[in-house]
Amino acid sequence: MTAFHTIEIDGLDIFYREAGSRDRPTILLLHGFPTSSHMFRNLIPALADRFHLVAPDYPGYGHSSMPSVNEFDYSFDHLAEIMEKFIVALDLKKYSLYVMDYGAPIGYRIAANHPERVQGLIIQNGNAYDEGLREFWEPIKAYWQARSPENESKLAYLVTLEATKWQYTNGVRSPEAISPDTWTIDQHFLDRPGNGEIQLQLLYSYGTNPPLYPQWQEYFRTYQPPALIVWGKNDFIFPAEGAYPYQRDLKDVEFHLLDTGHFALEEDGDAIADYITQFFASRLQPLPA
User: Fold this and answer.
1) 46 Cβ contact partners less than 8 Å away, ≥ 6 residues apart
2) Do the domain assignments include residue 64?
């Protein structure tokens, strides 16, 4: 059974989902944009008999606190700092990281700061290589270079219902299999007053991530966490070109390109759950039969 909790971190309420016994290997599930821990709602019960699952909502997302951009530093450095404090507060001493989209730069900051804690990586459409930032990112790169009203206006569509639905349906095999609850719930949170400004601030802050790619790649090479890559190959935001380079730096890597889009769990959640169970069965103990 999934439990729903809230814990106070730096005066903020951080909501999280949790399931499975703490005697089992822990997986910390880090969500992407524009969603929340809701993206893991089906994966958590699928793995709860073998793992301890923890999925937080970042500040500004889901059911966690949403201070304004004037009250809170919405940067990837700060979100990673809040998540590190969350890990300490929950006394998670060892864990694997499931990183997706925004979860990758947050998770890799945590891993590079505390490599001794990380037992493995599950990488789903989360970038750490220049090869992965292609056409979709050109107007965002222009925003990084010049934070002008003109460049900002070109990104306003990213918080619209049309764009949110597109993120869930673009590149999937069967659009009719994707629940409209997904984009409807995400859009509910995006439409809160002030949330659009939060998302623009984080899009700007994303420009701090590529300069850290060499540091994260050095972490991969030095510490060699076992890694499972489950990547929606039809994703226009984080295309498959960003998946392949992990194999340059990681030795123990299992690689799966899935015939789906950005939110691969929606269409291939059962397959991803099976891959996780099989991959970590020989690497993490205890895993019950």
Assistant:
1) 269, 270, 273
2) yes
SS3 36: coil
Which structural domain, as residue segments, surrounds residue 248?
A: 3-281
**pLDDT in the model for residue 287:** 58
| Alpha carbon of residue 282 to chain centroid | 25
Number of domains making up the chain: 1
In a domain, 287, yes or no: no
Convert the pLDDT of each residue in 28-71 to its tens digit. Answer: 999 999 999 999 999 999 999 999 999 999 999 999 999 999 99
pLDDT tens digits, one per residue of 189-210: 999 999 999 999 999 999 999 9
Tell me the two tokens of residue 280.
């970590």
Q: Say if 288 falls within a structural domain.
A: no
The answer to whether 262 is a known catalytic residue is yes
Rounded Cα–Cα distance for residues 249 and 217 (Å): 7
Can you state the percent helix, strand and coil of the chain, rounding each to 5? Answer: 45, 15, 35
